[in-house]
Amino acid sequence: MAKGIEIRNAHFPGRAPIDAYGNGGFRFADMSHRGSLLCLPSGIYGWDMTLEDALTPAHFQKVLDEAAQIEVLLVGTGPELRPLPAELKAALRAKQISSDPMSTGAAVRTFNIMLSESRAVAAALIAV
Fold first, then answer.
1. Most buried by CB count within 10 Å: which residue of 15, 18, 32, 71?
2. Virtual CA dihedral for 100, 102, 107, 109, nearest 10 degrees?
3. pTM of the predicted model as reported, rounded to 2 decimal places
4. Cα 21–64–75 angle (5° rounding)?
5. pLDDT (tens digit, 9 = 90+) per residue, 56-102?
């Protein structure tokens, strides 16, 4: 008997620039993803984060887990800049990660440039 549909966590096992964003998702590596993304050294992951969610260290656990390979974290906070809470900034700083919040569009553009320069960059992108 055939198995039913298997739902897996979204994951692209590599680094890739973001080709487009908007309409609630992103395009990269000839694929599209609906929802937010974490772009980390180990790959690109679907991220359960919306504009309404609080920016807490728990939401950034995957980033903290890969801290040894990340110097800069770009945080795309949606259509407008949203400051990072002190607790989150402290958690990132404790792992020696510099954080830079900005609109999601600015974060995508900056991520692509830094990625092309082979920098130790990661991005947390809230879908717009």
1. 18
2. -120
3. 0.91
4. 30
5. 999 999 999 999 999 999 999 999 999 999 999 999 999 999 999 99
